[in-house]
Specification:
The complex is a heterodimer of chains A (416) and B (371). With 416 residues, chain A is α/β, with parallel strands linked by helices. In chain A, 41% of the residues lie in helices and 15% in strands. Chain A is built from 15 helices and 15 strands. In chain A, strands 5-4-6-7-8-15 form a 6-stranded parallel beta sheet, with helices on both faces. The N terminus of chain A is likely disordered. In chain B, a hairpin with a 3-residue loop joins strand 1 and strand 2. In chain B, strands 1-2 form a two-stranded antiparallel ribbon. Chain B is mainly α. The interface between A and B is large, with 66 and 59 residues. Chain A: Pfam families: Peripla_BP_4. Chain A: It comes from Nocardioides astragali. Chain A: This is Substrate-binding domain-containing protein. Chain A: Belongs to the bacterial solute-binding protein 2 family.
Chain lengths: 416, 371
Amino acid sequence: MRRNIHRAPLAVASALLLGVFATSCSTEDPTDDTSASEAPADSAESPEEGSEETESSEEWFDQEVYDTQYEQRSATFEGNPEQPWLQYIDGEMTDTSKLASKGAKKACFANASISNPWRQTGWITMNQQLEVLVDEGVISEMETRDAGDDDNTQIADIDYFISEGNCDAFIISPNSTAALTDAVERACDTGKPVVVFDRGVETDCATTFIHPIGGFAWGIDTAEYLIDNLEEGDKVIALRILPGVDVLEQRWAAAEKLFEENGIEAVDYFTGADPTKIKTIITDELNKGEVAGVWMDAGDGGVAAIEAFEDFGADYPVMTGEDEMSFLRKWEETGLTGLAPVYSNFQWRTPLLALEKIFAGEEVPKEWVLPQTPITEDERADYLEANEGMPDGHYAKFGGEDLPGYPEVWQERQIP
Amino acid sequence: MSAITSTPDRRDTHVLPASEGSLFQRLLRGAVTPGGAVFLLAAVLFIAVVWANPSFGEPPQLIRFIGRTAPIAIAAMGQYYVIVAGEFDLSMGAVIATQVVIAGNYIGDDESRVLPAIALMLAIGAVVGLVNGLCTTLLKVPSFIVTLGTMLALGGLVRYLTGGAATGNPVDSFREIGRGGLQDVPVLDVLPYPVIILTVVAVASVWLMRSPFGRTLIASGDNPDAAGLAGSHVWWVKTRAFMLSSLAATVAGILLVGYAGVHPSVGAGYEFQAITAVVLGGVVLGGGRGWVLSAAAGAFALELLFSFLNFQEVESTWRNSVQGLIIILAVALAARAWTLGRRPSRTPASPTPSAAPSPTPARPGTETGEN
């Protein structure tokens, strides 16, 4: 047997297999360690999406949604600006008078995952919010199931909650859009309140759907910033986490459209947020010629991108990252021209507060659109000061300053 | 290249075919073996990259490229020990990720912990290799399964420690190992520390493979029974190969923390890149044949290929497919060179006829003596 292995054909065959294996494993990032701001939707596994899987970036583009989000960026938000997690854009409201009920309620939370720093930060904030509501006697307990970035697990989690969870209300942060639609509908069929947040599903049966403005708004904010600060014909490297996740694809779809319209030469790469890959890509691009700008669809790995310019000895680019502390700090330290777009992390507080309103019989927005405002260079110092001592993976607009445990819980990053 | 060093057995009275003729002839012969062809492949890719982008050939850029390729080249050399002994080490990427996370969590901002951390990381690397080796040799579990298990176990540990997300970077003085270099070097501008470390590892590897341990290692990979009967402790030889592999992964991890920073995805896919590099380097899966520096050359060929695709601006969505196809092609060509290299020459090349009739004539870059 060992002799056989030495024969060339077998060796070649196994080598070929390994070659294929190597490329599929070494160059793609496994979805479980992506650091997209949203749950990486492994939509390839979702049965319902079928032929829509191979959509190119143009097909991710939706003019109607783009226009809506373009408008919403400058919309007026109802509510107290000191509490952005309760603000919303005026629109259709859900009447919850029939859902009003006294006493402490049990909430059941089907979470997509906590596998990236954005979700971890939000998860910490949500638990501190829970503490407040438990003390106030609104919520008795929250049972949470973490689907670990897996659609099937999350569907099973929701079905478990429906049949055996003894839940008074459901909170769902879907892993992927199409695959979770049926499960969310089953939860709605129970007649109990259903709160969906972060990423949506293809049904409007939920009592309220909470999310910041969205991916197109991110793309518009960032691309416009780069276009304003660059010359026509300048080169921008777009660092993307992974393909196929709608919110991430929308960020790029909007940015790509604007870059094209304004004569900015943009090249996009998938990095899986792997800093090694980011650094290699930037270094190669710098070898090839001048790089004037860096665009990111999520800030994770932004520091590695900036370091690549330092190590190469090149001038800093104009850059858009995210409100992650590591980027804000590096941004200040280097003094580069930049913008920190925000995918409002404080939205993790909103679902529990929405339940409080629902059980009190107060109306809630059918689609609860939260503010989503980038951090500019002028505001940066304030956010750095406010978040001093926070770890690198913390998000500046986490919105938990008035919650118990602040700031130690976030500083220690005690993930429940 | 390999032919230059080939003096397999000085006491032998007849000259082996590999060490005859002029230097040029010997180089040429060496180049058609799998172990030599990879150097040609790397050279061709290098020319292609410089053609696509001339500034890549400038010494400062080139030395930086070598510096950033050092981690994967070191990992490939580590993987070589295991493969040449007839086994696999799939746990490499997970070991790298574990070390990266340990560096981030344990060192943090505390400069005094740099040296203890390096000692700790090397110890962990050695233990992981020991476990891999002992399970493979003493418990007789196939190494493919053992190291797959280690990979999953360590992957779970990383997830547990980090929750799957990045933690902060360790102090800059630690990161200097992978990021910094000697400044103001003539011609090169800067001499990155990873290049120095890579050179040291390469020289040590060549020395190690020429030592009794290296010869026994290849003999164990070629035919463990024969090696055992000849009196070597096959289990301990192979176990040390696994330890060398995990230690190489640890060194690669230390360099990567410096180069890139802490992220659980650092090291992802490194085991397969290393195996691909080793195979590209003409090392036979199943063990017993191959040259350690060819594995490192395989790593360089791979990285040059990736850079070439970066320079060509291949569309991001199908870049992986292009990489895959080229790797298959390259390995197929290397395997072809192997069969060509094996074929006995039609005209008796050797002036001493006694050397010719041997059914498997010694070939540079493929025989034990070449290491």
